[in-house]
Amino acid sequence: MARNLMRAAQYSKYGGGVADLKVVEVPVPTPGKDEVLIKVEAASINPIDWRLQSGYARPFLPRKFPHVPGIDAAGEIVQVGSEVKSFKAGDKVVTALGNGGALAEYAVAKEVSTASRPPEVSAAEAAALPIAGLAAHQSLTQNAGLKLDGTDPKINLLVTAASGGVGTYVVQLAKLANAHVTATCGARNMGLIKSLGADEVIDYKTPDGKVAKSPSGLKYDTVIHCTTSTPWSTFQASLTPNAKVVDTTPGLGIMMSIALKKLTFSKQQISTVFTAPKKENLEFLVKLVKEGKLKPVIDSKYPLSNVGEAWAKSMDGHATGKIIVEP
C-alpha cells in the first residue's frame, strides 16, 4: 500500500464521552494470516460502542488505549492474509469487527465474520446490518425459536422501541416469521414502522403505549424488548401464560427477573441477547436486503471528520434506525 497512515477516530480513556473522541492519523493496520484489510466505505455506530467507552465492560474492553471504536463496517478488500481462502483484493464486503476499528479509513477483519456484498446493496445499507441486524435475527431465531420462512403457526409478537436500530429489523424479520406484530415507538415514527410491516403501532407516550397494550386487546406470545427505559414488568399483564420475553439491552434488573422466574417455576421465559456475529447469518441478512425483503433504515450520515456529532446523536437515544459514518 502506498499510504502507511490513515485517519481514524479514537478515544484515550474510559468516560471521556464525545470530548475525548478525536480524529487523528494512525498507522494502517496489518491483517493477520486469517484476516483481511478493508478500505472502509461506511461504518455504523451502535450503543455498545459508546457504552464500552463509558466503562460498560471495564476493565476487559477496550483491551487497550487509545482505542478506535466501531464494529460495523462495509468496504473493499485491499489486502488478504496468507490463509484467507474466500476473498481477494477488490471484493466488496461487510463485516463485524471483534476488536473495534470501524471508525477509520481502513480496518482489519476476520475472514470468518466477513460476508460478500453484492452491488445491489450499498455500503451504507451493508454497514447498517451487522450488530443491529444480527441482534434482531438472533432474538427471533435462537431466543424466541421462530423460523423466518413463514412456516410457524401465527403468533402475536410485541416489539418495543421499534424505530431503533434493532427494532426496525425485528419488525421486518418477524413478519417473515408469520407473526402478528404490535410495535411501540414515538408518534413521529408510527408511519415508518407501519410501512415496515407492523400490524399495530402504539405511541409509547400514551397511557396504552406505556404498558404496551395492544389496540385490539391481543395477548403477546413473544416480546422482543429493545429499550432500557421500560422494565419488562410494565407489560406483563399483556403476556400469555407461556410467553417468551427477549431483552436485547440486558442489565442487572433483567438478570434478577430471570432468576426470579426460575425460582417461581413460571412458564413465562425471559432471556437476553449477547450478539454473536456469525458469517452465515450476516450472509442471510445481506441476501434479504438484495432481494428487497429487508430494508435498513438509515437515520443520518456523517463524514468521519464529524464523528463526534454522530457519537452524540447515538448517545441521545432518539435516532430512527442507524447512524452511518463515511470516511
TrEMBL record:
Domain Enoyl reductase (ER): 16-325
One Pfam family this sequence matches: ADH_zinc_N_2
CDD domains per the UniProt record, alphabetical: MDR1
Domain of life, per lineage: Eukaryota
Single GO molecular function: oxidoreductase activity
Protein name (record): Quinone-oxidoreductase-like protein
Organism taxonomic ancestry: Eukaryota, Viridiplantae, Streptophyta, Embryophyta, Tracheophyta
